[in-house]
Automatic annotation (TrEMBL):
Lineage: Bacteria, Bacillati, Bacillota, Bacilli, Bacillales
Entry protein name: Sulfurtransferase TusA family protein
Species for this entry: Brevibacillus fluminis
UniProt entry keywords in alphabetical sequence: Transferase
SUPFAM superfamilies according to UniProt: SirA-like
Gene3D superfamilies, per database record: TusA-like domain (3.30.110.40)
Keyword Secreted: no
Entry-linked Pfam families: TusA
Domain called UPF0033: residue spans: 7-31
GO molecular function, a single term: transferase activity
CDD domains according to UniProt: SirA_YedF_YeeD
Amino acid sequence: MKADITVDTKGMACPMPIVKAKKALDGLQTGQTMEVLSTDKGSLNDFQAWVKQTNNELVQTEVENGVYKFLVKKS
């Protein structure tokens, strides 16, 4: 699935990946997707918790060369 937008938060520490993702997600319509790129190891747990709290969907999680890729669908 191709994301409608990509948010690059590589090099940013908690809570910035979530802050940037929230701001970007606010600009999306229901059903659109956002890819978030992060190098923060804590972001794996952070994004899983965040999508539950916000009732959005974590469609895919991937780790490649130390970069976490999260695909979030706005609900």
